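Worked Example 4.2. Consider the chain below.
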Amino acid sequence: MFTAPGFAVFTDLLAGWVLTPGRRTITRMVSVADPQGRRAHDAYHRFVRVGRWSMTALWRVLAVHAVAVFAPTGVVILDCDDTVYKKTGRKVNGTGTFRDAVRSTRARVVYAWGLNLVIITLRVTPPWGGCPLGLPITMRVHRKGGPTTVELAALMIREIADWLPGRALHLYADGAYATLVGADLPRTVVTSRLRRDAALYEPAPPRTGRRGRPRTKGDRLPTPPELAAAATDWVQADIDQRGTTVTRQLWHRDVLWYRACPRRLLRLVVVRDPTGAQPDDFFITSAALDSPAADPATIASGYTGRWSIEVTNRDAKQALGGEDPQSWKGQGPARAAALSLWLHTAIWCWYLSTHADTTSWRTRPWYRHKHTASFADALAALRRTLWRQRITAMSANPALRAKITSTLLDVLAEAA
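Applying the procedure from the previous section yields the following structure tokens:
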């Protein structure tokens, strides 16, 4: 997917992205990746802005590799969400005003100017257990007046199904993507939150033999909170909440959500905290009603793992500076954002294959009981490896090198 010169620019750019301290602007990346100025600095800007390469093809290579390594058999678990990469300047291609989910509350909506990214991640259980990891495997930019976020998510799922022929997919998404349960996505089960005022119905009654068009839906049911309030046959179960076992009360009912999926029944699952500390959660799933995927405890446990995509969005912004590259024209803004997410997955793939059996993270006096690695630990390990290679290549005294470079490497690895 690259020419030979383009691939050289690509590898230098990503190496600079990993090693650059502070803001990850393209100019700062060039100063670290190519300090001798072997090529013009504008070559890196042109590569991102108008380079002849395909981000979709790059996503496909990484997605197929990640699934082969971390989910070689069974159902491929995916998560979907959208986030805003904040930008400054009114002429950045693809930007607009979108709701900032991080700063918004129920009482006050905050808007931000930037790129609205729809992201799908592969959910991976790390060797050390605990909270799963979310590895981005594809992304699209939602533009004002273009396809909706739901339409973009459906397009990406169909792409992933083509990349992974024969594999079954299970997509978890928040309530904004709930209508995907009726999108007829290939080999894909969709589980999502359900809005509390959703119009639910009984299944269509059998035909009466009278003349006229038969009914397509039954009587209107109460709202999900009203159904939960009237329910009596609750089942108590222990569910896995991101590595921690918690007790929840579960109730389910098969309903017709006519607006999203008028042709078949879906399963409504209500999850209640017995202590009352948390409000009831309402989920809807397109899984076959007689399949293990439709089990209420499985649905409740599976949806809690969707939090991994929220952690991914934070890490890509804070640890990798995904919002920092200053590219305004052409495909530059969208490609720069996509490369930050692509690099996030590539770093985890490298770290899990080389450090899975070792405690490579640094313990601190104030954090002595650390048992899991974070993305910052994986990034620091990669920085330490890359800096060691560079310093080794420039050093002439191997005996003195280890003594001098040990502290330097630790500082460079933690620089951000």
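The chain is about 35% helix and 20% strand. Residues 359 and 373 are 8 Å apart (CA to CA). Compare this with Example 4.1 before moving on.
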